[in-house]
Amino acid sequence: MKKKFKNLFLFVFLVFFIVTTIHSKPRFSFKLIGGFSSMGGGDLNEAIKERRKLSSDYNNLGINAEFDLDEFRWLTTLKGELMVHLTPNFGIGIGTEYLSKTNKGTGHVDHNDGILYWLGTESSELNYNSDISILMKAVPVIFNLYYFVPVGEKTSVFFSIGAAYYFGSFEYITDYDLSLKETTLDEIYRYTENGKPENKAKATSLGFQGGVGLEFDFTSNISLVAEINARMVNFKNWEGDVTNEHWSWASSHWIETVGYAGYVDFDSDSGRYSETGKMWHYTTPDFITEGDYKTVGIFKDRPLSADREAEINLNGLQFRIGIRIRI
Questions:
Q1: Contact assessment for residue 94 and residue 54, using Cβ atoms and an 8 Å cutoff
Q2: pLDDT tens, position by position, 239-281
Q3: DSSP secondary structure string for all residues of 156-212
Q4: pTM of the shown model
Q5: What CATH number is given to the structural domain containing 195?
Q6: Domain of 109?
Q7: What is the total count of domains within the chain?
């Protein structure tokens, strides 16, 4: 991927060298635009759907479960671009863009189940709560070719096509607590756990874009711009780490039976764990529903159920407005 970026940079440099050589007085302008960009999401949105399906399967089994987290459908975008106008109709542009979106949500599982016997009751109590935050960011270095067509005294339609090299980052943070209590006729087992695992990964990718826009000359030096672009970029080489700074658990086992009246076995642990590796697309089983669910995660070694590395794409349409200032 670094080789692709190097080749793209050399190509852009060559174009600018040719421009400054054959065109002694090129005109310059700077464009600043912002808006929204839709995105496909790839494995990220699939994992969110699968988690929602797991909650639905729990509910079908009589377990109260909820997973409230939206899929990634759009990002905010802010773009700055320096344009070199070779002729009144043709120009080239180099710029950068900042795309970002944070989705926050919650997860909840609450289940109480019991069976009444003539000697007593056997029951199970499960409670799980989580706060979830997912951040998706990308910063591309963009190169575009432009063609302008006047359609009025102050209005022009323009067409653009180009390539970009993207630097992407991904963060998935879950703050959770879990409690479990199992009661039988002569035993009580309790377990609690809490933590805040943070998954952070980065990736790069080469992408392409093209679109159409409308420009209106507000003054001799300032134009209003509106444009619609299509984007195609897919990140496949995610690498990063997962850390849990405040992880802890505790368990107790109370036994009341012949030879063990009132015996309690208690154990606990706490600390920090960290793992560095690639982000994988894999399936994870659930022992309650006995189903398999697709998800993504960072592991040092490839999980046995992984079929490939995780992919997150930003494919979609961009809707942006702004201004162009002639220098």
A1: no
A2: 999 998 777 878 776 665 544 455 556 666 777 778 999 999 9
A3: EEEEEEEEEEEEEEEEEEEEEEEEEEEE-SSEEEEEEEEE-EEEEEEEEEEEEEEEE
A4: 0.84
A5: 2.40.160.20
A6: 2-326
A7: 1
